[in-house]
Design goal:
This protein has about 190 residues and is α+β, with helices and mostly antiparallel strands. It is built from six helices and four strands. It has a single domain, classed as NADH Oxidase (3-Layer(aba) Sandwich). A four-stranded antiparallel sheet has the order 1-2-4-3. Bound molecules: flavin mononucleotide.
Length: about 190
């Protein structure tokens, strides 16, 4: 791929929920995307990324786990936004929870998260290159013991995103970026 092709790929990626929720994303392809994530730069080679792929009925299980975590943290279970959590992950063929392993060293802890975030972009770009839509969603709550356990992650894992993946059923308009400002020092 030349630079122009890469630039087009980067700019074509959209955060989109216009996805066919009924059409599964092959687990083998999700595994390829997660493997791509592991090629992100990673200071001290801590390999901090953690992945869980929710498909089929599993998509509602992660929603229900987050609902339980929200309610355990004091959220009103009848609040529409809280109730919506239960079913929101069924809006895509696959949901990949991506976590970052913790480190007792504050700098490495942050750098682990940077590496995982960089890896998530690989997932998004890989999905785009394959013609799939994607959406990086924030977790409904950071302290989420039930969801974290369901993912099979270490208890203290920081879940950085719930990545919706699926076959597109529409196109989102691009969000224009402000002009880039670069300080040049000579
Ligand atoms: C860490 C992170 C968390 C995000 N969480 C959400 C989210 O919870 N809901 C949402 O609508 N978009 C979320 N986004 C996506 C942004 O809203 C999106 O990237 C932005 O609007 C620009 O659109 P684009 O990605 O299509 O260029 C998140 C992005 C990042 C990097």
């Amino acid at each position: 791929m030349d630079f122009e092709g890469f630039a087009t790929l980067v700019k074509t990626r959209r955060t989109s929920l216009l996805l066919d929720a009924e059409r599964p994303v092959p687990a083998a392809f999700v595994a390829e995307l997660c493997e791509l994530a592991t090629w992100a730069p990673n200071h001290k080679k801590t390999w901090p990324w953690r992945f869980a792929n929710f498909t089929g009925a599993g998509r509602n299980r992660i929603g229900e786990a987050y609902f339980d975590d929200l309610v355990a943290a004091g959220a009103d279970p009848r609040h529409p936004k809280v109730m919506k959590t239960k079913g929101k992950y069924a809006r895509a063929g696959a949901i990949v929870a991506v976590g970052s392993a913790r480190d007792f060293d504050e700098t490495l802890d942050a750098e682990n998260a940077y590496a995982v975030a960089a890896g998530i972009e690989h997932i998004l770009l890989g999905a785009t290159a394959a013609g799939l839509g994607s959406f990086w969603g924030s977790p409904p709550i950071l302290a989420a013991p039930t969801a974290t356990a369901l993912c099979g992650f270490e208890k203290d894992t920081k879940i950085l995103g719930l990545i919706y993946l699926g076959y597109s059923i529409g196109e989102m308009p691009a969000v224009e970026r402000p002009p880039v400002i670069i300080t040049t020092i000579e």
